[in-house]
Amino acid sequence: MEKVLYGKPLAALIRARIKELIAEHGLAPRMRLIQTGNDPAASYYVQNIVSSGAKLGCEVQLASLPANVGQAELLSLIAAANADPQTHGIMLQKPLPRQIDDALAGAGIDPAKDIDCLNPVNLGRILLGEDSLLPATALAVLCTLGHYRVPVAGRHVVIIGRSAIVGKPLANMLLWKKPWANASVTVCHSRSANLEELTRGADILVAALGQAEFVQPEMIKNNCVLIDVGINEQKRADGKPGYVGDIDYNACYGKALAITPVPGGIGSVTTSLLFLNLLKAALAAQGINKTVDDFLDFIFKE
Ligand SMILES: NC(=O)c1ccc[n+]([C@@H]2O[C@H](COP(=O)([O-])OP(=O)(O)OC[C@H]3O[C@@H](n4cnc5c(N)ncnc54)[C@H](OP(=O)(O)O)[C@@H]3O)[C@@H](O)[C@H]2O)c1
Description:
Layout: H1 8-25, E1 30-36, H2 40-56, E2 59-65, H3 71-83, E3 89-92, H4 102-108, H5 120-127, H6 136-147, E4 156-160, H7 167-174, E5 184-188, H8 195-199, E6 204-207, E7 225-228, E8 232-235, E9 241-244, H9 249-253, E10 258-259, H10 266-285, H11 292-295
Parallel strand pairs: 1-2, 1-3, 4-5, 4-6, 6-7, 7-10
Antiparallel strand pairs: 8-9
The protein binds NADP nicotinamide-adenine-dinucleotide phosphate (NAP).
């Protein structure tokens, strides 16, 4: 196993698979990307999605709504995208403004077009071990483990973070009865007692809490695999903005068997998987239903 689990080579393989499938099926996948307000980090991510789509041959239609958009207006925009047969996937860029109910907005997206997995139907399918449109970040963690041949089955995976978009779906996907899952899982959060005791028990530790360099060497055991989902903006010595993860990379490197960098780790894989979801939705609209194993057989082979 390699020591540094880089995301870019894996993202390149996923993008190549997407292009291959688009050509094979003559598809014109189209995403409706809805941004509310102008949060700089969200705008950066949105521009990244738009340019990635162009490179992949997917159309991304961006709807930029003001920060004071009302719930009814947002829901009617989502309803219009649901009803449009040329739109295969809908993505709602977070964070949403305070006046918007996140759960209502997510539930408003047609489950068949819910490429960011916000609809409770898709989250419920994950709980039941059924294939669905899967949350890209959680899937990026599993793809990274699979690609770098990190043994997962039977291992103890500890996740710090219980959000509906990362920690909870990832925990449930790790429990799937699949050769690339079948893990024993512990999920920790801000109220967990003896957090360090729990994290020291991890064969694989996933940090998804949004606290810069939170995980320190005394919190991990020797030769554990460290997966860093966190992306935290931090001013560099030269005053320019930089990014660090939820794991103190330099401090933990020596003790770890393998580690994902930030940037250049999980985040680099996530956007390609969002487009894989778009492709999956576009194929399903043509009556072609592919599972995650069909799409990612080159990663999840036994
Ligand atoms: N790489 C990617 O593609 C990608 C995608 C999405 C998010 N992210 C990043 O991943 C991180 C998590 O995102 P998120 O949306 O899941 O965050 P979130 O919704 O804020 O959830 C954070 C979770 O971490 C827990 N937590 C916070 N502080 C903690 C502490 N001191 N000890 C233990 N648990 C603690 C919280 O516990 P409570 O539930 O008790 O509050 C919560 O469950 C962020 O850095 C975000 O930027 C990366």
